[in-house]
Amino acid sequence: MVQTRTVQLIIFCLLIISMQVLIQLEASTDSGDYVVLESLKEEWENVPPTWDGSDPCDDPWEGIDCNNSRVISIKLSSINLKGELSGDIEGLSELQILDLSYNKGLTGSLPQSIGNLKSLSILILVGCGFSGLIPNTIGSLSQLEFLSLNLNNFIGPIPASVGNLSKLRWLDLADNKLSGPLPISRGSTPGLDMLVHTKHFHLGRNQFSGEIPDQLFSSNMTLKHLLLEQNQLTGKIPSSLGLVQTLEVVRLDRNSLDGTIPSTLKSLTLMSELFLSNNKFTGPLPNLAGMNALNYLDMSNNTFSSADFPQWFSSLQSLTTLYPSLSCFRFIS
Predict the structure, then answer these.
(1) Considering the domain boundaries, does residue 4 fall inside one?
(2) Which segment of the chain is annotated as a signal peptide (predicted)?
């Protein structure tokens, strides 16, 4: 009798093990990816209630997208996540999109291992509470097209390795506490000047210092937005800025730039908005004749040498907003 019960118990245990194996075989989520998601789940507070079960792909976890059993996307914006971004994230080797935006409770530094996400094309961490240095390994994300780290508490320099992101279209590091010079390439060291396919440099409201390097700009660039407002930049506007014929919006306001405005700016005929206010510019007002798309121009709070009304103003047919206003100029008949 005892022997019969023992045999039955063994058979029961084997059935349980077989069922567990069968469940694992039927699960469509890669086991390694599942382990990583479980690690993130343990690290974070306020994960979605659907983050339960052992198959995030087939029994979908909110914010998780998969392809052929692999996790390719995590989109968890504005759900009050709290915690840190674990270095285990590197285990999601097929991850293409990581969007954790507007979760103020996500704090701490970005892990160095984030650079191992070789398939990542979109990284959006805007409006979180991340701090510390931006890891240099971010320059290893060779597929990255969209990088948005704005509205955090990052400090230190822009990693020169960002210049290696040859597919990058959007760079937004605004509203942090970043400092130091704008990095440009030197020898084998990369820099921002190498990002010739990037459409947006959003670097405003930081603590960048030093001059805007002349080497930063070239005719190969395809920039549309150059936003450098509210930093601690000094020196002159480089004449090479006029080489970037694709520019539509330039913000250099609220720095400590000085000297005269380079005449090369007038070649930027696609420019619609130009902000030069609150600097230390001197000399005559720049001649912007030919900038026919310009509709917003702010040159206020500088020390230009002439208050005479420039005749070329009347040629700017698209201009709707001007600072200082026309009342500040002396008209010459």
Answers:
(1) no
(2) 1-23
pTM: 0.88
Give the Cα separation of 147 and 171 in Å (integer).
5
130 Cβ contact partners less than 8 Å away, ≥ 6 residues apart: 85, 106, 107, 108, 109, 110, 149, 152, 153, 154
Q: What string of DSSP letters covers 2-61?
A: HHHHHHHHHHHHHHHHHHHHHHHHH--S-HHHHHHHHHHHHH-BS--TT--SS-TTTTTP
Tell me the CA distances in angstroms from 224 to 57, 251, 272, one per residue in order.
39, 11, 10
Cα→Cα distances 90→215, 304, 314, Å = 35, 53, 57
C-alpha to C-alpha distances, 322 to 84, 228, 260, nearest whole angstrom:
46, 20, 19
Write out pLDDT tens, residues 182-214: 999 999 999 999 999 999 999 999 999 999 999
Please give the span between the terminal C-alpha atoms of the chain, in angstroms, as a whole number: 120
Q: What CATH code is carried by the domain that includes residue 151?
A: 3.80.10.10
211-253: pLDDT as tens digits:
999 999 999 999 999 999 999 999 999 999 999 999 999 999 9
**Class of residue 128 by CB neighbours under 10 A (exposed 0-12, middle 13-18, buried 19+):** buried
Domain assignment of residue 63, yes or no: yes
Complete edge-to-edge strand list for the sheet that includes strand 280-281: 82-84, 105-108, 129-133, 153-156, 177-180, 207-211, 232-235, 256-259, 280-281
151 plus 255 within the same structural domain: no
